[in-house]
Amino acid sequence: MKKFTLCAIALAAVTTISACKQATKGTQDDSKALSAQAIEVHDEIMPQVSAFDQHSVLIDSLLGNLTAVKTANPAIDTLKTRQELATLKDQLESATDKMMSWMYEYVTDSTDTDYQRAEVKRITALKAEFEKANTDASRILEPFNK
């Protein structure tokens, strides 16, 4: 009976250890998949940073030469244009700064699934911010790209 009890305890211990290893491996696989998803979103939006930088240079040029812009297009409302351009520049810089912060803070090899899930959510929200900034830049800067 003692041998049977010892065998049963040993079998239970082996099964428990095996289950823990399986659960840990599953968690690690999940965190790796989430990390890959976060990096994929990052890679999709990161190239827009250089376009945002170019837009900022154009905005600075336009803001510095609004008199010439007004001369070229007398119908332009310079007050409204100045406000739109300043707001757009802030929006572009904010998105870029958030991307830089995310890249600095992100821990790609973290095996914490909750952390990786939160980072996917964070970078996905940043993607939406990038898309809005890109749409706004296209709309606001279109008249000046002729």
How many strands, what sense, and barrel or not for the largest sheet?
none
What gross morphology would you assign?
Answer: rod-shaped
Summarize the amount of helix as a percent range.
over 70%
Sequence stretches where pLDDT stays below 50 over 5 or more residues: 3-8, 10-24
Number of strands: 0
**Strand composition percent:** under 5%
The overall average pLDDT, rounded, is: 85
Q: Quaternary arrangement of the chains shown? A: single chain
Number of helices: 5
- The end-to-end distance, rounded to whole angstroms, is 91 Å
The Rg value, from CA coordinates, equals: 27 Å
Find the structural class using helix and strand composition. mainly alpha
Order of secondary-structure elements:
HHHHH
Kindly list the characteristics that best describe this protein:
mainly alpha; disordered N terminus
Characterise this structure.
This protein has helices spanning 2-45, 48-64, 66-72, 78-105, 113-141. The chain has 146 residues and is an all-alpha fold. It is rod-shaped and about 65 Å long.
